[in-house]
Write a structure and sequence with these properties.
The protein is of the alpha/beta class. The chain contains eight helices and 13 strands. The chain is elongated and about 55 Å long.
Length: 246
């Protein structure tokens, strides 16, 4: 089994980054080195693994702030790594950006459907990578500034933005950071129709490069988790989505 290499650069980390740790799981050493170099230039700490098994061990040893995960890994592939991370309470909320040469829409849909927060296809520029990392960290680690009065309740569905908590009929439901932001955006304005572009800008950030299809995948995942209450989110054909005004 290939061993993990852990490279940490604290001295140059700007205060805004606060030494955030990114775990990079990439089986091509040259690409791993380039990605790690660019991340450390921006002040991030980086722990690196060449395969899925080692990557999972690294993550279990020290929980990172974000995971960059290649899909095509030896042994345990990236999709299985993602499944395992999302299945464990300790790791289910860690943001994941999938990185792969497989850039077809079906691969994007599959990756996001498993709970990844974003998907970037190779080849990509260092500038695009850093922008994606910053955007995902920003929306996953900055809790909404809300007061108790801002709790959103629609029937048996209760959304508490300040606590990043959603419960339905008394049972708590786990959402990824992106799904939660999107649900809050829709539920906070019941009856208002949001275009896909508006949902991207309001939920994920204006600087995020996201295709319309990604929004559809997130909405489908939210509906699945809402179960019998999935009708709260309505599709407005040719436009976007809205939260039912009840």
């Amino acid at each position: 089994m290939q061993t993990a290499s852990i490279n940490i650069n604290r001295a140059q980390a700007p205060l805004s980054m606060n030494g955030r740790l990114i775990t990079l799981i990439e089986d091509e050493p040259d690409i791993q080195e380039i990605i790690a170099y660019n991340l450390k230039r921006e002040g991030y700490q980086v722990s690196s693994a060449l395969n899925g098994e080692t990557g999972l061990s690294l993550i279990n040893m020290k929980k990172p702030d974000l995971i960059l995960l290649d899909l095509m890994l030896p042994g345990i592939d990236g999709l299985e790594v993602c499944r395992r991370l999302r299945a464990e309470i300790e790791t289910q909320d860690i943001p994941i950006i999938m990185v792969s040469a497989k850039g077809e829409e079906s691969d994007v849909v599959l990756g996001l459907g498993l709970g990844a927060d974003d998907y970037i296809a190779k080849p990509f520029s260092p500038k695009e990578l850093i922008a994606r990392v910053q955007a995902v960290l920003r929306r996953s680690q900055q809790a909404p500034q809300t007061s108790p009065e801002s709790i959103i309740q629609r029937g048996e569905l209760i959304i508490e933005p300040g606590k990043h908590k959603v419960s339905l009929e008394g049972n708590e439901i786990s959402f990824t950071a992106s799904e939660f932001k999107m649900l809050c955006t829709l539920a906070s304005k019941p009856g208002r129709v949001f275009t896909r572009e508006q949902l991207i800008n309001l939920s994920l950030g204006e600087n995020v490069v996201v295709v319309d299809r990604n929004i559809d995948v997130h909405i489908r995942a939210i509906r699945k988790k809402l179960g019998e209450e999935n009708s709260f989110i309505e599709t407005i054909r040719g436009i976007g989505y809205r939260f039912k005004d009840i």
